[in-house]
Design a protein that fits this description.
about 130 residues, mainly alpha
């Protein structure tokens, strides 16, 4: 395994951890005042429908994180098999697309979050493919 691949795997792990944090923010903490503040939701704008949307978005981020983490485990356990790498690249690719969509559609104040959401998995994908 090349040094570039190892760097890619580490960065993919960081992207997965970031998406686990998004899951906690969206699915667990959103219903609390702290969670709503993070997303700029005033108490009077909170609603069951908005909470449902946040939970669903959190589950989506959890699934992406688990996909990448499963790929990491498989890649480490069976380094000569390609299926772990395929899972990592698939999960990271969706993370990149979601980050780009967030950067394009969300308020400018969320640009750093969008760049982190897209940047880490993009770097991971390039490093793994180039490695």
């Amino acid at each position: 395994m090349s040094a570039l691949t190892i760097i890619g795997l580490i960065v993919a792990g960081m992207a997965a951890l970031l998406h686990l944090a998004f899951f906690v923010l969206e699915s667990v903490l959103f219903r609390l005042p702290f969670g709503r503040r993070v997303f700029g939701v005033r108490p009077e704008h909170d609603s069951p429908a908005l909470r449902l949307f946040a939970v669903n978005q959190g589950i989506y981020n959890l699934a992406l994180a688990l996909l990448v983490l499963a790929g990491l485990v498989l890649t480490i356990a069976v380094p000569d098999a390609a299926f772990g790498t395929v899972l990592i690249i698939a999960g990271c690719s969706v993370m990149v697309v979601a980050g780009v969509a967030l950067a394009i559609t969300a308020p400018r104040r969320t640009l750093p979050i969008a760049l982190a959401q897209a940047g880490l998995p993009l770097v991971a994908t390039v490093a793994i493919v180039a490695g």
